[in-house]
């Protein structure tokens, strides 16, 4: 086992009607709140009303910033920072899925010192403080509610990149599975793919960490156990609750301790290229990229893949594992080939070019240009 530091300061408030505790929990962080959300789903699923009611009850002064896009953009984040500075905002509340939470993390980091958000993302500007960030999650997928990562894209530079800063941990995250009843079957499936992909990313890191392997296994088996039930019965509380908690635990540190790093992230990097070019939903980019990546890696790291095959499917073969994984993705209607999301072979070179330009790679499973070309071929 490798040396490690275990740290996660996020207070998670989980359960039905848990947002009833929002006001009293956050009242001491200040009165001036920037409420960040997306394109309007929060007004249909009841979460917006519940949050506003709480903030009004505790006399908060609310400034809203809406319209955060899936695959969020740094220019929207910049607009929110400008408003936040103008209004002397004291606390940021993110209401939504990973895109909203990630945007809010960077907004909260940049307001105090009026920093350029892209310079922060690229590690060219640094901050020692953040406004308090509170999240109210409405989509089970990224784990952003209990980690310190954020992912944004920049249309000008042609990148979608991740960022990690311990200052970006939310102070409190409120997780009411009922808010996820309204998530479409598509995004429910993409969220399940994403959480499984997070467990995979931490698994394909150097170092032996048996307990972390078992956490990886448990998170994945929980997701697979509830995947079909949640799609069949989206308004069943236990189905939603189990998926929600599995997604949070897939990327809150528990699956990584004892290995040499917190993830390989090569497959996420490949997925971000697709999301940048074609606005592919994050989970859909991963259900296409993982099988292709595994096919490339099966002769390089067969023992590691077989270990995962054993943990997930009680199987001893890399090929069998990849077939079973694809079958599962198909069962939940997640795409496994680029053609299924209408990306044809004429776009192949464009994908390869952006991957090469952005130096797509894993931290542990290194990818050459030749490897990237093979992976793109395998995604068709
Ligand atoms: O914009 P609205 O109207 O809110 O609609 C959203 C959006 O269209 C909708 N939605 C959210 N909650 C809903 C709902 N629809 C109905 N009912 C609800 N309760 O779902 C759509 C997708 O939302 P989004 O936030 O984009 O999805 P997700 O949570 O999957 O986040 C994806 C983003 O997170 C990044 C991804 O790269 C991507 O940009 N990631 C962040 C990570 C992190 N911070 O740790 C790690 C991940 O690997 C990932 O990279
Ligand atoms: Zn992800």
Q: Could you tell me the mean pLDDT?
A: 98
* CATH architecture level-2 label of the largest domain: Up-down Bundle
Q: How many separate domains make up the residues?
A: 2
Number of helices: 15
Shape: globular
> What structural class do you assign from the helix and strand content?
alpha/beta
Write a structural description.
- There is one protein chain.
- It contains 15 helices and eight strands.
- The chain folds into two domains: 11-179, Rossmann fold (3-Layer(aba) Sandwich); 185-378, Dehydroquinate synthase-like - alpha domain (Dehydroquinate synthase-like, alpha domain).
- The strands form two sheets. Strands 1-8-5-4-2-3 form a six-stranded parallel β-sheet, with helices on both faces. The chain has a two-stranded antiparallel sheet with strand order 6-7.
- It has 380 residues and is α/β, with parallel strands linked by helices.
- The two termini are 38 Å apart.
- α11 packs antiparallel against α13 (318-331).
- The chain is globular and about 60 Å long.
- The site of zinc ion (ZN) has 6 residues, from α7.
Quick gist of this model?
With 380 residues, this protein is α/β, with parallel strands linked by helices. It has two domains: 11-179, 3-Layer(aba) Sandwich (Rossmann fold); 185-378, Up-down Bundle (Dehydroquinate synthase-like, alpha domain).
């Amino acid at each position: 086992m490798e040396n490690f530091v275990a740290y996660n300061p996020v207070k998670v408030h989980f359960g039905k009607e848990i947002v009833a505790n929002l006001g009293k929990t956050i009242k001491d962080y200040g009165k001036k709140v920037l409420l960040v959300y997306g394109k309007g789903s929060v007004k249909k699923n009841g979460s917006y009303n519940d949050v506003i009611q709480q903030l009004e009850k505790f006399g908060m002064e609310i400034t809203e910033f809406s319209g955060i896009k899936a695959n969020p953009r740094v220019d929207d984040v910049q607009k929110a920072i400008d408003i936040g500075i103008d209004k002397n905002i004291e606390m940021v509340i993110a209401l939504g899925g990973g895109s909203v939470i990630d945007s809010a993390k960077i907004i909260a980091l940049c307001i105090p010192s009026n920093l350029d958000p892209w310079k922060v993302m690229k590690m060219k500007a640094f901050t020692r403080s953040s406004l308090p960030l509170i999240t109210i999650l409405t989509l089970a997928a990224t784990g952003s509610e209990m980690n310190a990562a954020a992912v944004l894209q920049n249309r000008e530079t042609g990148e979608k990149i991740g960022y990690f800063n311990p200052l970006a941990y939310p102070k409190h995250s409120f997780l009411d599975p009922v808010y996820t009843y309204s998530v479409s079957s598509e995004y429910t499936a993409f969220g399940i793919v994403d959480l499984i992909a997070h467990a995979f990313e931490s698994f394909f890191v150097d170092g032996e960490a048996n307990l972390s392997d078992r956490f990886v296994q448990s998170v994945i088996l929980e997701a697979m156990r509830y995947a079909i039930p949640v799609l069949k019965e989206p308004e069943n509380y236990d189905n939603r609750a189990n998926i929600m908690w599995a997604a949070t635990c897939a990327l809150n540190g528990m699956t990584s301790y004892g290995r040499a790093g917190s993830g390989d992230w090569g497959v996420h990097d490949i997925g971000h290229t697709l999301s940048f070019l074609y606005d592919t939903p994050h989970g859909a980019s991963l259900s296409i990229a993982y099988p292709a990546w595994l096919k490339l890696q099966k002769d390089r790291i067969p023992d590691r893949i077989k270990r995962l095959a054993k943990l997930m499917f009680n199987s001893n073969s890399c090929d069998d594992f990849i077939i079973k994984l694809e079958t599962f993705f198909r069962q939940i209607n997640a795409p496994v080939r680029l053609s299924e999301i209408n990306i044809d072979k004429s776009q192949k070179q464009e994908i390869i070019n952006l991957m090469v330009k952005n130096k797509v790679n894993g931290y542990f499973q290194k990818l050459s240009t030749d490897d990237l070309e093979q992976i793109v071929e395998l995604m068709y």
